[in-house]
Amino acid sequence: MKNIEGTSRHQLWVEALCIDELVEMDNEVRVIELFIEQCDFEEMGFNHEQPRRTGRPSYRDKDLAKMYVYGYLNRIRSSRRLEKESHRNVEMMWLMRGLKPDDRTICSFRSNNSEALKNMFRGFNRFFQQVELMGNETAAIDGTKFRANNGRKNYFTKKEAEERQAKLEHRIEEYMKLLDANDTIEAGETKSAKERKAIRKLIGNHNKMVELLARMKESGEEKGCTVDHEARLMKQSKGSYDVCYNVQTMTDEKYGIITAYEVTNACNDNEQLEHMAKQANDAAGARGINILADGGYANGEAIHRLEKQGIVCYVPKNEPGHQPNDERFHRERFVYDEATDSVTCPAGQVLPYKRICKTNKRKQYYNIKACKDCMMREFCTKASYRKYDRGMYEADIVCAATRVINNPELYSRRKELAEHPYGVIKHVWGYGHFLCRGKGKASGEAALALMAFNLRRAINIKGVKNLMKMI
Fold first, then answer.
1. Is the domain of 157 the same as that of 75?
2. Nearest to residue 36, comparing CAs of 72, 69, 83, 77?
3. Are strands 155-157 and 223-225 parallel, antiparallel or unpaired?
């Protein structure tokens, strides 16, 4: 039996088709088209298409936004690849109506409209709110590290930058001597172009070090990057270090829609709970929602302020890592008595309140005499006496941790809600690093990725045709 044969490439096609017939009625590009065309881009703050008096007209902001949303939804975020897709991808041709912008135009749109893209993310979420894709009762917060567009070798401490600057100055001086020697060579012999090229590169690197040290002096920081100035060196999950941004997200419990996000350069999550919880609460209409977070968010002052606004926090206690080897004398074994403002240690000794630490503003409790005479001191501490410190808002931390213990079913949802988006975006879609430089531009790029994730969730839950009817 013969195989199925294709038609000749030189044969004329008699049947005339319009491009709309090549895109199914339930194709996701129709949702992108319908939604973005109804957005008020002027209100969102897009400014790319301001026409000039002379020259070629610019592309519409809405067309370039459609291109990016489609690209991020289909694992294409490079401006060069998006340009290529506009030439060969039928869905992209339909969406762009045959327009083929060049890669620089596409790239500039994302770079110049970072704040507007964040507003577009919020616009998408307002729609998801209206069609009841958000429950507005419980949300889970978490953070993850996305690599910045700055290599590890371009990150320096102040000491490293000063040493690097001195080394470059020494090498420049050597090359200058070599060039002076070349200038005295007899006429007719060629001067070294290689040395001149090398010295230009060295001077460029030296100027970067000078600028970096000037920024450090102005900001008071001891570390910095020469490429992406706002990125920071952060510890990764497997113990390695890389130059990253810390992306915080708040995920709604009902269908796993991301309700709020923030791109930060904070190396840990301790200070991120309050403003993220407020964003999620505002997105829910200030209803007073439940917030699920891991121990890294155990900030008593933030929990205290959120509880006053009706936002209920479920956060386990984050016990210090430097605990005694003997579990009997771990910090959680010490019992605080609010009536006497004292702490009873596992050996039965009372540690009264002594002072407030000047560095971290935490109350300290200790009993030097009792520890000196205690037979179990060697199991409790290596110092001459054991100190117990307690934050001013420790009661709020204990209250939030107690809720975790009393509501294991609710808290068990935290991991599946908060970490699922990162698994999809970073490991399935491959968006583990930023293409743009600077926290503002990285925020706009994150908006596109998270918007695409939310849109994919909405399409999977409601279907294309239902979403189009809702729009």
1. no
2. 69
3. antiparallel
**pLDDT tens, position by position, 91-112:** 999 999 999 999 999 999 999 9
Give the domain extent around 158. Answer: 152-225
Looking at the fold, whether 159 and 220 belong to one and the same domain comes out as: yes
Dump pLDDT digits (tens) for 412-428: 999 899 999 999 999 99
Element (H, E) at 182: helix 158-183
DSSP label of 425: I
- What percentage of residues in the chain have a pLDDT greater than 90? 46
If asked whether residues 38 and 88 sit together in one domain, one would say: yes
CA atoms within 13 A on the CB side of 404: 21
Cβ neighbours of residue 203 under 8 Å, at least 6 residues apart?
172
pTM, whole model, 2 decimals?
0.86
Q: Are the C-beta atoms of residues 334 and 394 closer than 8 Å to each other?
A: no
Is 403 a member of any domain? no
Whether residues 157 and 108 fall in one domain: no
Provide the 8-state DSSP code for 384: S
The CA–CA distances, whole Å, from 25 to 29, 234, 422, 455 equal 9, 46, 31, 17
162: in domain: yes
Q: Which amino acid is at 381?
A: T
CA 414, 418, 419, 421 torsion-angle sign: positive
Domain assignment present for 337: yes
Separation of alpha carbons 66 and 96, rounded Å: 8
Residue 350 lies in a domain: yes
C-beta atoms surrounding 131 within 10 Å: 15
Is 470 in contact with 462 (CB distance < 8 Å)? yes
Stretch 6-15: mean pLDDT, rounded?
Answer: 77
Domain end (from 396, 420, 438): 396
Q: Could you give the number of structural domains in the chain?
A: 3
Q: Which of 396, 422, 447 is the last residue of a domain?
A: 396
The residue with tokens 């809405």 is 62
Same-domain pairing of 97 and 177: no
Nearest Cα neighbor of 389 from 344, 442, 435, 331 is 331
